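Tutorial, part two.
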Amino acid sequence: WERNNVEILMMEGHQFECPWTGKKLLSSNYDIDHLLPISVYPLNELWNLVPSDRDFNQHKKRDRMHSYERLKVAHPRLVRTYQNSTVSKVLSPILSKDAGGRFPQLAYRSDLPLVLADAVVSYLETVAVSRNMAVF
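Running the prediction step on this input gives:
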């Protein structure tokens, strides 16, 4: 379902980049990546699902967490990914609901893509540190 909606956005001309590599994503070269890996916590909320480079996701990231440095570099790309979702009549309300459920302070924010990326980076760093996760 997520992939189908991302592809609709791509067909409408919205650009996606891999948050980790910066590679421009096309319908033929991406996966839907769980920012917080399923092996850590099976969370399919929309804020946790982002298009990423298929090769990187399958062969380098796999089920590891991102280092804080990598998250900081990915931050602007996460903002753009969330911005793309907010223009979709289908994805926008789900992103808002999922983000508000996980991060209640973000409910009904007009600047959701930016503040959500901030909250996600902070949350992922907290999980990685508290669980002493392997990072890349």
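The two ends are 28 Å apart (CA to CA). In part three we will examine how such features are distributed along the chain.
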